[in-house]
Amino acid sequence: MKSKSILRFGLPKGSLQEATVEKMAKAGFNIHVSSRSYVPYVDDDELEIRLIRAQEISRYVEHGYLDCGITGHDWIVENNSKVHEVGEFLFSKATRQPARWVLAVPEKSRIKSVKDLKGKRIATEVVNVTRKYLRKHGVKAEVEFSWGATEIKAHELVDAIVELTETGSSLRANNLRIVDTLLTSTPRLIANHDAWKNKWKRQKIETMALLLKGALEAEAKVGLKMNIAEKNLTKLLQALPALRNPTVSRLSQSNWVAVETIIDEHIVREIIPRLKAAGAEGIIEYPLNKVVY
């Protein structure tokens, strides 16, 4: 009897967990996470999911304990993991902006640039990234691993910190000033090199990547439908952006057509008054689940 093919998939536990599970659901993979288990349920019997800290996923993928996983670019760099990067997916726990690892100091610190760190002490969770940054600038300084509450240490225990931020609001709230950005990071889908060479696993991973990217693309777009008299169609089409060209179909009422298009959500509030002025009627806006190019 032929054994069933299984893909072992690592998802990040912690700050990225909720956002990742939500995006996976939009991609069509419904995952249920129990507070007492690191093995979530997923409605795909070809997947075995493990919840693991984002910091560790790239190492487990590299060594083949997982076939693939989602983790930040920062942890791939920090661990120097030799993995295949399938794709970049722009989402985070708070925004759609990339996260940044920044060098930060107290507002009143005399440290103005990386050169001022000579002989100083720096706390961070990304020790290897920070040491590489210092070497690049020819600066010798002590780098110590921080287990947490790093922002507080900058005022009393160390001279500077390297900390992750999306908006900078937490740093400002702790009276810290950003001196430099060391690394920009976004979530990545990564695969073990041997798994990527396996035809079935590669196809499964590529399908997940396609659906996940389609779900993320759809978040920023909406569909628009409207009816318009045929004599006003040219004027309306001049005002209407679309992924390619809008779909135009004839209505049962003579000399009238229906127009349907996909556009960026942020321009809808500007464009609907122009469509109305062009003669459009019955304008409907609707959300999308996936947009696949």
Spatial arrangement of strands, main beta sheet: 4-1-5-12-6
Could you describe the largest sheet, including whether it forms a barrel? Answer: 5 strands, mixed
Percent of residues in beta strands? Answer: 25-35%
Q: How many whole angstroms does the radius of gyration measure?
A: 25 Å
Question: What is the arithmetic mean of pLDDT?
Answer: 92
Kindly, what is the distance between the CA atoms of the first and last residues, rounded to a whole number of angstroms? 39 Å
Q: How many DSSP H or I helices?
A: 10
| Count of individual beta strands | 16
Give a structural overview:
The structure is a single chain. With 293 residues, the protein is an alpha/beta fold. 31% of the residues lie in helices and 32% in strands. The strands form four sheets. Strands 4-1-5-12-6 form a five-stranded mixed beta sheet, with helices on both faces. A five-stranded mixed beta sheet has the order 9-8-10-7-11, sandwiched between helices. The protein has a four-stranded antiparallel beta sheet with strand order 14-15-13-16. Helix 1 (17-27) packs across helix 8. It starts with 6 loop residues before the first strand and ends in a 6-residue tail after the last strand. 29% of the residues are buried.
